[in-house]
Design goal:
This protein is α/β, with parallel strands linked by helices and 133 residues long. It is built from 5 helices and 4 strands. It has a 4-stranded parallel sheet. Helix 3 (44-53) runs parallel beside helix 4. It starts with 7 loop residues before the first helix and ends in a 6-residue tail after the last strand. The model has no long low-confidence stretch (mean pLDDT 86).
Amino acid sequence: MSSSSLPAEYLARFSDLQPLYPNSDALSRLFSSHVCVIGVGGAGSWVVELLARSGVGRLTLVDADDVCVSNTNRLVLALTSTVGEFKTDVLRDRVLNINPHASVHVLHECVKEDNVHQIITADRCIGVLTFSL
């Protein structure tokens, strides 16, 4: 797909990114890219935000958790109005507000040994996991 065949609204939103990439078909490649983000909490929510603002066309968001009031200090998606909602659902809506041409698939589950191969089908997968010491 060439840049000229991209939706006009997509080009209006993301054409300012073109000079950042030496490859002339960078916007087309971003538009057709699929990235899976596993864990959309403190770091993952910001990763998704940046991917959306970079024009990535397909995202798979994986997280079984909902937004808690204690998330407010570190999650881009944590607002009074989103407490109790699935993190992935809130981020899907946010991504679509940034890029209405994006395709966002959400999975409300944890990644385990028996489902990892079904979940990770993207071009790139970013695992943003947290743990306690």
